[in-house]
Amino acid sequence: MNELIVKNGFVFDPLQGIKGDRMDIGIKDGKFVETSALGNPKVIDAAGKTVMAGGVDIHSHVVGPKVNVGRLFRPEDKLFKSPLKRGNRMEMGFSVPSTFKTGYDYARMGYVFVNEAAMPPLHSPHVHEEIRDTPIIDNAAMPVFGNNWFTLEYLKNNEIENNAAYTAWLLRATRGFAIKVVNPGGTEAWGWGLNCESIHDPVPYFDITPAKIVTGLIETNEHLGLPHSVHLHCNNLGNPGNYTDTLDSLKLAEGYTAKNNFGREQVLHITHIQFDSYGGDSWRTFESKAEEIMDYVNAHDNITVDIGQVTLDETTTMTADGPFEHSLRGLNNLKWANTDVELETAAGVVPYVYSPNIRVCTIQWAVGLELALFAKDPMRTFISTDHPNAGPFFRYPRVIKWLMSREARDTTMKTFKWLERTIDATSIDGIDRELTLYEIAQMTRAGPAKALGISNTYGGLVPGMDANVAIYALNPEDMPSDPEMIEKAFSQCAYLIKDGVVAVQNGEVVAEPAKRTVWVDVKVPDNAQVQRDIYEHFLRHYSVGVENYKLFDEHVHNPRAIEVDATQ
Q1: Is the CB of residue 452 less than 8 Å from the CB of residue 56?
Q2: Location of each CATH 3.20.20.140 domain in the chain
Q3: CA separation (Å) from 215 to 158, 303, 567?
């Protein structure tokens, strides 16, 4: 049957400004329609339940080489097996779950779109293989540019048009979605045993600063008019006192405005900003600077952030910030893997335990929540865990519980060994704010979709959009007194409808509807110099030929190309 009607639910849709109205939602042939357009639809009774669009995750590490290194690197992580049996494939893993468990767990939470946050261009075939293997959820993947030799050379010489032509070529070659920047310049410096700890430290050999890399990529992004803004992982991540470096990075966006046809209003997205919001001059004096960071973000409409919430779990850190991972390994003395990708990036993988018995960890926990609770515009501040770096993505329901309930935060804080020191170093104990379901919909649906430039398809319940609906067993007129029920409801949705097909019912996967890979097809004027540069670089430096580097549509699962015309 290709017609559905979701009846009598409490609807939250920030794209339409709907704040808990009791409404019916019509679906026909995989799209939202007016209910008057339906003939004899199947009825889903959502009375007493919360209805939202399918969730959109703006930043997660779920596929690709470093994720697979994490799976191989941590066989003990596979001891965690899902108790749910209804999926068609074996589900295994905790912080680095299998591709099958990844898709199923996101679907159970009511999510339909996940943005893979760091794709090494050379390894894009592996990324797309694992995207193909991940059931139900739609995916996009962002190639990393901040340490790419082509990018560094073009931006050093102020060749924005040439860099734009190269960026467009790379997005097409890898079937990528957006410009990702990780520790700009610092990962290239890591090849020399160095790092760029501030935005003013020059990159060895290339003699360009992170500040110039970021501003050059902002100009490149707006020259092309891409759907999403520059997606930045800041320099000096994870270190005491780094909030001043973060403020310096945020200020790089001043004076720039978005130029695109996708509804995006921002030019810079700072990801997992919790790791960039630290004060103090050592681990002994470590403290929160979340309020200072959010004061700046709140005052500047051309910036979005996701929080990177610590979930107090054992997990596996992994990032294209090689020097950070080496530093982390020095702190916990656990095993460490490092991988370099020629001309493009490097990554590290280190297990980590965020313990309630460790003061630094509990302060980090507070910082992430403070960022969300200080946010004045939830359409520009999004829920994430930087999966799996601050914790596994399937803890989002727990994060939502903490944000919606002061009681839940207090209950967690009572488990802290160093509670008074955590309170002294943060503002969390003085924040009574509890987020509403509408604000949760902004932070997990409409906001991320709009920031990604895909809000014409995802993040809302507007007629004509893809019919992605999540229904939760929460009655806004009679919210449970026990905050644990909030976590339970968001962990196992009553229904997930993906493209008009019921995929999850009562927390169990009951169908695996077709999924898509979303990428950006950018058209730019022919540029003979850039084509010559690409050919010569591949001939001289790469271990593969340029034709073996490229992906084509037949290599990409059910591709949905977003066309961008930068030829004008």
Answers
A1: yes
A2: 55-452
A3: 11, 14, 22
Cis amide linkage into residue 351, ω under 30° from 0: no
One-letter-per-residue 3-state SS of 364-413? HHHHHHHHHHHCCCCCCEECCCCCCCCCCHHHHHHHHHHHHCHHHHHHHH
Is domain 3-53+464-509 annotated with CATH 2.30.40.10? yes
Q: Which pLDDT belongs to residue 83?
A: 59
Percentage of residues in the chain with pLDDT exceeding 90?
A: 88
pLDDT digits (tens, 9 = 90+) for 517-544: 999 999 999 999 999 999 999 999 999 9
Nearest by Cα to 116 from 147, 139, 148: 139
Rounded Cα distance, 138 and 74, in Å: 27
Task: Give the residue range(s) of CATH 2.30.40.10 domains in the chain.
Answer: 3-53+464-509
Instruction: Annotate 9-44 with b (16+ C-beta within 10 A) or e (fewer).
Output: bbbbbbbeebbbeebbbbbbebbbbebeebeebeeb
pLDDT digits (tens, 9 = 90+) for 298-316: 999 999 999 999 999 999 9
Is the entire prediction scored with pTM above 0.90? yes
Compute the chain's Rg from CA coordinates: 22
Q: Does domain 55-452 have CATH number 3.40.50.620?
A: no
* 86, pLDDT greater than 60: no
pLDDT of residue 223: 97
The whole-number pLDDT of residue 329 equals 86
Strands ordered across the beta sheet of 517-523: 55-60, 111-119, 138-143, 517-523, 559-565
